[in-house]
Design goal:
TolA/TonB C-terminal domain, four-stranded mixed sheet, 16 helices, alpha+beta, 450 residues
Length: 450
């Protein structure tokens, strides 16, 4: 993905998350399950946007009209990254940003790996819990090992194939009802395979470590998951008050962790508020709210894609492709023969000096005209009724200036005007492996009489 498209994708996610953030509150959605499902779908859409949206494709082509010169390439994509202080500054800034992104991803993934590695010690050193919770494991279909551990300060659940529930030793002196409330919460995480989802979300957070909207969205997904499990635990134990008191007690000593915790200080207020109220929604309201959220999410996605589209720029002439035979073609009037003139010495010298790379699949064309010059229709040609396409081969140097031009599809009487106009155009340079590069590309100047 190019730097321009990466920035456009960044903005798409920002617009989508901002637009969807307040929708559940605006619709007064009080169902934890609906909150959880909605924010998970929003996260999935954010990740899939580059794969499902239509990529805008544009052909690099310069068009010369009788009254003005127009550049009809993908200006919208190139305008996202304006030149700073020349091609060297642009190249350095893009390369530095890419390095910072990769370093941040590696650091976050390493931190996640260290956290998962640290969980192996309490698994090995934990003491087996009593048989008091076997009925809960059987009722929920959650065959997890339940261990007491002095290495944790709050309950922790981890593992997919061999799930483990670690209970802090301090919980052993608590009321049996509180113990069952805590274990029911953790066993519901096991039964729902939440560990796999948490690991996946943390990997996404590591990849998008630089994007605050993604951090917020993943935080909302994890909060919604905890509220769903809260409701399931209350239904299992039928002890809402004891569960709420236990949640508050453990929140006092909760600390940040990369694993799903029984309580987290940053989520506590919201979870306590939901638990203190039995916020039930009727089936009709849940269905209606789901439909509205789906339509709104689709509209927000389309709006984000329309506001910041991704571009794929296709050159007018493919690299290493044979040049079309234009020597025997005629213009629109049919009475002016065209031919390919010999290569001017100036053009041959520029080829030798700059050694440009021909625009093709792996070499992007100049994407934005930073300077345009109006060209007048030659009076003699206009009087003679001459019109048609003059095809030019141009060399654009590392500063984006047209270093040399030659005519490959000639219309006598119009060639000079096309060449003189093309020489004065300037563009954003093409980057190859992060460095500005001289390129050889095709321009077509079209002359039409009104």
């Amino acid at each position: 993905m190019t730097a321009a498209n990466l920035l456009a994708y960044f903005l798409q996610i920002t617009v989508l998350v901002l637009a969807c953030a307040a929708l559940p509150r605006a619709l007064r959605v009080r169902s934890p399950g609906l909150h959880y499902g909605f924010f998970r779908v929003v996260l999935a859409v954010c990740l899939l946007l580059p794969l499902v949206e239509p990529i805008q494709r544009h052909e690099l082509k310069a068009v010369q009209a009788p009254s003005a010169a127009l550049w009809s390439t993908a200006i919208g994509a190139a305008a996202i990254i304006p030149p700073v202080s020349g091609p060297t500054a642009v190249s350095f800034a893009i390369r530095l940003a890419g390095i910072m992104m990769l370093v941040g991803m590696a650091a976050r993934l390493a931190w996640l790996g260290v956290g998962m590695r640290r969980l192996q010690r309490p698994r090995a050193c934990g003491a087996g819990a009593t048989q008091a919770f076997d009925d809960l494991k059987q009722a929920m279909g959650a065959p997890a090992a339940i261990l007491w551990s002095a290495d944790v300060r709050h309950p922790v659940t981890f593992g997919l194939l061999r799930p483990v529930v670690l209970l802090p030793v301090a919980l052993s002196s608590a009321d049996p009802g509180a113990q069952r409330a805590v274990v029911a919460h953790e066993l519901h995480h096991v039964a729902r395979h939440d560990w796999a989802w948490v690991v996946g979300e943390e990997i996404v957070r590591s990849i998008f470590w630089f994007h605050p909207a993604v951090w917020w969205l993943i935080s909302r997904v994890q909060l919604a998951r905890e509220t769903v499990v809260d409701e399931l635990a209350v239904l299992t134990t039928n002890a809402r008050r004891i569960y709420l008191e236990t949640l508050l007690e453990f929140a006092d000593s909760a600390r940040l962790s990369s694993t799903p915790a029984f309580s987290a200080r940053r989520h506590l207020f919201h979870r306590v508020t939901l638990l203190s109220k039995e916020n039930n929604m009727s089936s009709f309201r849940v269905t209606a709210a789901s439909c509205v959220l789906t339509v709104a999410l689709a509209a927000c996605s389309l709006g984000a894609v329309y506001a910041f589209p991704l571009f794929s720029i296709t050159p007018g002439v493919e690299a290493n492709s044979p040049a079309p035979d234009l020597r025997a073609q005629s213009d629109s009037r049919g009475d002016v023969q065209t031919q390919e003139p010999p290569m001017p010495p100036e053009f041959a010298a520029a080829l030798e000096r700059l050694k440009p790379v021909r625009v093709g699949k792996n070499v992007k064309p100049p994407t934005q005209a930073t300077k345009t010059v109006k060209a007048e229709y030659p009076p003699d040609a206009k009087a003679a009724g001459l019109q048609g396409d003059v095809q030019l081969e141009t060399i654009v140097d590392t500063y984006g200036k047209v270093a040399a031009v030659r005519v490959v599809h000639s219309i006598p009487g119009l060639d000079d005007a096309a060449v003189q106009a093309a020489k004065l155009w300037e563009f954003t340079p093409t980057l190859l492996n992060g460095a500005p590069t001289s390129v050889l590309c095709t321009m077509v100047m079209t002359f039409r009489l009104k």
